[in-house]
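Chain X:
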Amino acid sequence: MASTSDIKNGLCIEHSNDIFSIVEFQHVKPGKGAAFVRTKLKSLTNGKVLSHTFPAGHKIQVVRVERRKFQFLYSDGQGFNFMDNETYEQLTFDEKLIENPGFLKEGDNVDVLFDSKNDIPLTLEMAQYVVLKVEYTEPGVKGDTATNTLKPAKLETGATVNVPLFINEGDLIKVESATGRYVERAKA
């Protein structure tokens, strides 16, 4: 049993008969009244995000989670299929449990979080940045590199990202997987 003083980003707790990961927290000590901890919690079973306030010193139930490396194989009508890199066991994840499935490319490695007590997969986390090839985008005009104007580009996975005007078809780009934001042109 832990208390609110042990709260940190990424900590997994049991709350309201569900398992949550702490996305954001803030310890607050108002001038008048008792201290409290304001948190933003993300459910690891259904992906919903909620805000909750704990009184200072409140006891919380910490859930032990295990990270295992899995490789993305393919997607079909049932969901997204992954293989454990050590045991070669395969798992199928529903699309709602994956934050941005449009950036998954066959062969990519992801971390799958398991509830250690029940050995149940909770959620998966992609790499922070992914490198993808631009399949289609309007051609850039010479001299259009001075402005911060963006244009849509369709990637090899089917996802669409806004990119600067100098990006052309066939270029490799680095994309932030959590937000879907263009970061930079990648080297081949």
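Chain Y:
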Amino acid sequence: MAAKLIIAPEAQEDVDEAYTWYEDRRPGLGEEFLGCVDTCIQTICRMPELYAKVHEEYRRALVRRFPYIIFYEYTDGKVIVYSIFHTSQDQKKWKNRLV
């Protein structure tokens, strides 16, 4: 059974910004990005303990084809996505969001 999904508003903003950036580069690329993010999130919800913990109780999953990482927590049957983060950004930014 898939875990219940909760996406933090900041994580949704991350996706929206990335979508716009990719779509501005090439029409349709933003849609491809969303599809890859969605696939990764579905995998997380089906197998939330698949990915290793990287900071306290937080886990990360790599988005296929795009340089993004999804940071989430799995607790009490819920997956909470806190950040969908470009890998070139400063790690302090995502760590601050998780604390």
